[in-house]
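User: Could you check the structure of this?
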Amino acid sequence: MSALEFDATTHTYTLDGEPVWRSVTGVLKAAGLINFAGVPDDILAAARTRGTIVHQAIHYYNIRDLDQAAFRADFPQYAGFFDGWLNFCGLRDFVPTLCEHRVASRRLNVAGTLDCLGVLDGKAALIDFATGEPGNVSKDLQTSAYLLLAREWASEDPDLADFLDAHPVIHRYAVRLRADGTFAIEPYTHPRDTREFVALVEAQRIAAARGVGREEGAHAVSG
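Assistant: Sure, the predicted structure tokens are below.
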């Protein structure tokens, strides 16, 4: 059994059999940086379903296990978003190496699942893709958190260690996939992103120690 596990039913991570304090997106939600409180429930549910299905299709495509014809037949309304990924990989020459890869920090007791680590235009890249607006879910801080966790978790993950050893410099991007098959790529380069994420974790731990926000602890949604 791996030291780091994810339960898709409860959307929780465990590390050595113990619940992880928070997920990456759990930290951002607790900080109010991911907040869809004003979005009607039906629209939010539709967006979540779309995101989940498109993510799964891309994941299986990346690991060369997707029946594209079946996907297009079953989910014609999402085919354009998937085509956006195909166009991104082809036009920008992206080759994924590690996909839907779990990472964690024992120091922070935070875990998450990064979308893709691979090579983009000849340079190592961490890619987080979305069917919505990346800024609405703080992809800048998300990607910095995943990279921070990946560097820590590499000591316990040989595949991750091999990739990071071969590529000491990792560039971060969000890729927005659109229904018409196009895409937009947004680079994140500011070093303060990592510091800000760690500051959020520290602030939330201080609040939790004072009895604030305990209900948002280990059962935060995955990400």
